[in-house]
Amino acid sequence: MRPPSPPRPDVPTLTDGSVTLRALAERDVQGCWEQCVDPLSIRWTQVPVPYSHHDAREFCLDYAPAAWADGSQWILAVERDGRYCGNIALRDEGHGRAEIAYGAHPDARGTGAMEAGLRLVLEWGFGTVGVQTIVWRAEVGNWASRHLAWRLGFTVDGVLRRSHVSRGELVDAWVGTLLAGEPREPSGRWLKPVPLEGDGVLLRPLDVDDVPRIVEACGDGRTHHWLGRMPSPYTEDDALRWLGANQEQMATGGGVTWAVADPSSGRMLASINLFHLDEVEAEIGYWTHPDARGRGAMTEAVRVVTDWAFAELGLRIVRCAAAVENKASRHVMEANGFRLGGHDRLATTLDTGRADIAFYDVTAEEWAAGR
């Protein structure tokens, strides 16, 4: 016997005292239009392009009420201080399931209004409506949506390949779930590359503007020799995939990556990564752009990141490794007081084949004493 669908509730007004959720109205048309012509909305949603005031009025006054009437979607406006902040939809998928979707007005992004609104919808959906499972989906790369879902307690259960339609093309999509009764809080760590300052270097988040410098560095023969698994030739698409992989690593708490930059110009000089990270230890990896070699930038960057790893993450030990013959990389470790722990035979891949590595480490106590 097929389980009954949730009831078709009347449009509620929900509030936490700061944010209010209510039915869309005439006063939301302008804000809805501004939201839907915003470049980020166009990039990550399927709003029509071009989008007119007529489209916004039709969505607010016709489409949303009709969805409430037939029970297919429960669409609510998010309001704070009398201003439209965006809208949230809970879409009935039957069998006690619903999909959640949301979009924020540009002025409301980063203010917490959408998170507060989503928490109200989750409480209402699980409680009043009786939904058992709420599903979140987003195109791979929509990190703002994923971060918000993570804050609400959604787990990312996988990637559905070529399952999401984006401007007429099939693209990969993340899918996540939140079950009734589960905590509405993050279940893991999401790391962010907080800016760090050192002597003559600035460590900052990577950005798509760094792609040309990444391509130059990773396409360099010396870089490729020591990092033999790197694609060759190295293209912009390779750089973008690498940026995405770093984002995924940070989103799952496995590591964090910085651009090492010139403090005055912001120009990328190198990259440094803290990876294989758990509650006790992590490993540092790095590469340097050809025009920044020999300037001490990486030696200083390793010092700054090691300081941060011990002070902010509470690690007990930090490790590094390099091919035995990679004297420049080994010098960086030795200059920072990392101790040679031994060698591992044929444990890395150069562009000429397998090679031995030297591995180094430093404990929190040794680091503190050396500083």
From TrEMBL:
Residues 19-181, 201-366 form the N-acetyltransferase domain. Gene3D superfamilies: 3.40.630.30. InterPro entries: Acyl_CoA_acyltransferase, GNAT_dom, Ribosomal_N-acetyltransferase. SUPFAM superfamilies: Acyl-CoA N-acyltransferases (Nat). It comes from the Bacteria. Pfam families: Acetyltransf_3. PANTHER family: ACETYLTRANSFERASE, RIBOSOMAL-PROTEIN-SERINE ACETYLTRANSFERASE. This is N-acetyltransferase domain-containing protein.
